[in-house]
Amino acid sequence: MTAVNGIRTRVLSTIAGQLGKPHGTLGKGVAFILNRGNKRAIAGAVDAAGIGAGATVADIGFGGGAGLSMLLERVGTNGTVHGFEISPDMLAGAKSKFAAEIDTGRMRLAQGPMTELPLADAALDAAITVNTVYFVPDLAAACAELVRVVRPGGRLVIGIGDPDAMAEMPFTAYGFTLRPVAEIIAALEDAGCTVDHRQLPDPPIPHHLLVARPA
């Protein structure tokens, strides 16, 4: 039983590590799964961000890149989409996929953690980040940084899976921090935002969208 438990721990830890930072051959499969599994939550976040043509926006922790495509469609030919990732492999994949958009300046991709974004203050009209804050140790610092880069009156949307539903998944015991929704709302309010809490009941698990507006 000890050997079996050890194998189980290694498998679940590997899954959790790949979800937090997809990499290697396995990471390519994880990216596909993330795009498919998170599609409805990402689409909900994009809708909640209220993005119009010509806007400057960002997907922070874009993973498989589904959100980048959705944002490009919303901002049109005169808008700009920024994307930030901590995974070098996901960044390389997105640079290849969106090479034409990068060449025209419609998309700008960079590596960077959520707590240290390479953007000027108030550089964005809107930003989304979906299923990422589980992997951020310092929630207050992350929220402060996200709010810093979104202009006053813009929108920042944080999407998370329902914490109770996420806790039922065995791999979330390895490297995930499943915070109550109220804790994330409080961190956004402390960073100077008003917050609208919306819910998405769609499968595979319910999601919460926290729509923050910097003052």
Give your account of this protein's structure.
- A hairpin with a 6-residue loop joins strand 6 (about 195-200) and strand 7.
- The chain is α/β, with parallel strands linked by helices.
- The model has no long low-confidence stretch (mean pLDDT about 90).
- The longest helix is centred in the N-terminal third of the chain and has 19 residues, at about 1-20.
- The protein has a 7-stranded mixed β-sheet with strand order 3-2-1-4-5-7-6, with helices on both faces.
- The protein is built from 9 helices and 7 strands.
- The termini are far apart.
- Helix 3 packs parallel to helix 4 (about 65-75) and helix 7 crosses helix 9.
- The chain has a single domain (about 1-215), classed as 3-Layer(aba) Sandwich (Rossmann fold).
Keywords:
215 residues, 9 helices, globular, alpha/beta, Rossmann fold
Topology readout:
Layout (H helix, E strand, L loop, with lengths): L1 H19 L3 H14 L1 H10 L7 E5 L5 H10 L4 E6 L2 H10 L1 H6 L2 E5 L12 E7 L8 H11 E12 L1 H5 L13 H10 L2 E8 L6 E8 L1
Parallel strand pairs: 1-2, 1-4, 2-3, 4-5
Antiparallel strand pairs: 5-7, 6-7
